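User: I'm putting together notes for a lab meeting next week and I want to include a structural view of one of the chains we've been expressing. I don't have a solved structure, so I'd like a prediction I can at least talk through. The sequence is below, exactly as it appears in our construct file.
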Amino acid sequence: QITVRHLLLHTSGIPATACDTKVNAQTIEEYVAELQTIKLDAPVGTRHNYCSGNYNVLGRIIEVVSGQSFGEYMQENVFAPLDMQQSFTSEQEAQQAGLAQGYQWFFGLSVPTHHPYNPSQLPSGYMISSVEDMSHFLISQLNKGQYAHTNLLSEKSVAAMQVAGTKRGENGGYGFGWVIAPVGDVPAVWHDGVN
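Assistant: Thanks for the context. Below is the predicted structure for the 195-residue chain, given as structure tokens.
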């Protein structure tokens, strides 16, 4: 059976091809429901295979357990405690607050564009934040779970996030939401992204 730990470490066996293809889903619940037809590409817990869909399933678990929407939960339990006043789980709210114009490269030129926003994949990459707000989150990660006078997570929880729970390729591992691998020759805890 797939556990929360498997989802956090991307060892659930959900194939990468199933991660971003849920075009009909409008909500996290619909996204997760569409995964019912997916066949796992590896036995549960046997290998790391990054698939953002794991975090969408985790987002749905948060909704079911808390009785709140994922957005309400994030606002109440992460954004507010960390004083993240320019962080959003709604593109419309972010636009009203002054969301920056998106750009993309087109034949060597940077041109304005509107990137698609997919609320059904909110937990895996569609939250919107400012650099300042992200720094509040990162400060809490660097400070054993504390930002200003708020302890978002326990020191033990932050430490558990930042150690490899599974191997990731030849040179590093993956923790709970973090890649644990050197950047060049420097040991690092990091995560890249697209959305």
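A couple of points you could mention at the meeting. The radius of gyration is 17 Å. The CA atoms of residues 10 and 49 lie 6 Å apart.

User: Perfect, that's what I needed.
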